[in-house]
Amino acid sequence: MTHRPLREPLRPVRPHPADTAPPPPGDIDPAALGALLARHGWSRRGGARGRYGRWTPPGPDTGTSLLVPESRAFPDSEDLLAEALDALARSATPAAREVLLALAVPSDEIRWWRDAPDGPAGATSWTAQEQMRGAARRMLLAAALATRARAGFHGARHRRAAAGLLENVLVGAAPGGHALTAFVPVRAARPLTVRLHQALHATREAIDYRRATGRTDAFDAAVEAGVSRELTEALITLVHGTEGARVAVAWAPAAPVPGHGTTDTEPVEFSPGDLPVLREAGARYLHGEPSQPVEITGTVVRMRRSQPRGDGTVRLRVLDGADVPHVRLTLGEDDYRIAGQAHLVGLPVRVCGRLESRGGFRRLTAVTEVAPAQVEEAERDRLIKELQENLDFFEGACGGDCAD
Questions:
Q1: What's the DSSP call for residue 58?
Q2: CB 199 within 8 A of CB 144
Q3: Residue 107: helix, strand or coil by DSSP?
Q4: For the residues of 245-263, what is the DSSP string, one character each?
């Protein structure tokens, strides 16, 4: 374990989007503010038509209201916007914070609802809340994976890039724990929201088709829309133990609505009766995704065999050739020896084989070639100077090329 020196300055931390202040009143579109207020439960109670509206927050009457101009056509519009922002900042209602957050970080909103039995005082159990959060995260991850590639089963592929797409997503829970909202920044992650919107509707259509005809081939076509085993598993988790669940996408009012059939923003509903079809589709995706021929370059991170000689198992950290972080493979004695020597001298190895879908694309089979990989000239010279004692064997392993 290493410790940071006491006097070493801390590394700068990237500010969280939730800590970003809303834009100044001069940069706010009054129509966008009005749309956000309506989306988050605020009610318009009157006001001069064509000039401004009076908005009150959801819930019991607290005496709080906002005057929001409808346009910038009047001289006092910027003053009214400034006063509205100040009132939102001082308001204790969660709906006010959600509006400020949407103004600070223009975001598409994804909402989940679960119709589950209430606990004491209308609250939900810890387990139910964790189940909804877990389902929501898995659903976002499935959509992020679908932005990288269309596949019925992703397994370990593209996980790193997909997880990176979720870094700036913010989450807000509704009182009572029956709903959850994800704020997906338009600039950083709009493709994720588009893909999830398309995939949810494609899943609903495929389920209805399966129930009407008894055929599951609609799920094959749905892969192109982003449907996968990962998405069906997320939906199963969301719906299980409920009377039904809904997912809705609302586009950021300050950004253009994307095309490609995304105008329908009504919630997509799923019921416990859909669970058998979702499980059947998930199994179809799992067994239908073929293995892939690959040529992988990776560094040896673990080696194991039960006897001093013979076959052994090797684990590689993938550098190139496949979108997975690690793979395991079984090697014969000679190839195992080459991999071990490459590990000792700090060189990666290049292997050819098939990346198997069974196990989540974490295993390489039918390995036909194992050889130390060439590296940059400067790195090659450094390794050779440090490892003269191993040069004789290394020449044999590399066929003499490494010592030229």
A1: S
A2: no
A3: strand
A4: EEEEEE--TTSPPP-SS--
Delimit the domains of the chain by residue range: 17-104, 107-288, 292-403
Distances 365 to 223, 271, 294, 354 between C-alpha atoms, Å: 26, 40, 10, 5
Question: Of 12-26, 77-91, 178-192, 347-361, which gets the smallest average pLDDT?
Answer: 12-26
Nearest to 284 by CA among 228, 359, 350: 228
Concatenated DSSP letters of 324-391: SSEEEEEE-HHHHHHHHHHHHTT--EEEEEEEETTTTS-EEEEEEEEEEPP--HHHHHHHHHHTGGGH
- DSSP, res 60: S
Distance, in Å, from the CA atom of 203 to the CA atom of 282, rounded to the nearest integer, reads 11
β-bridge partners, 246 = 113, 269
pLDDT digits (tens, 9 = 90+) for 213-261: 999 999 999 999 999 999 999 999 999 989 999 999 999 887 888 876 6
CA distance 174 to 41: 12
Q: Which residues contact 397 (CB under 8 A, 6 or more apart)?
A: 337, 338, 341, 342, 371, 372
Determine contact, residues 258/194, Cβ cutoff 8 Å: yes
**Which CATH number is 292-403's, of 2.60.40.3080, 3.10.290.10, 3.50.50.60, 2.40.50.140?**
2.40.50.140
Q: What is the pLDDT of residues 25-69, one digit of tens each?
A: 878 888 888 888 888 888 888 777 778 888 888 877 666 788 888
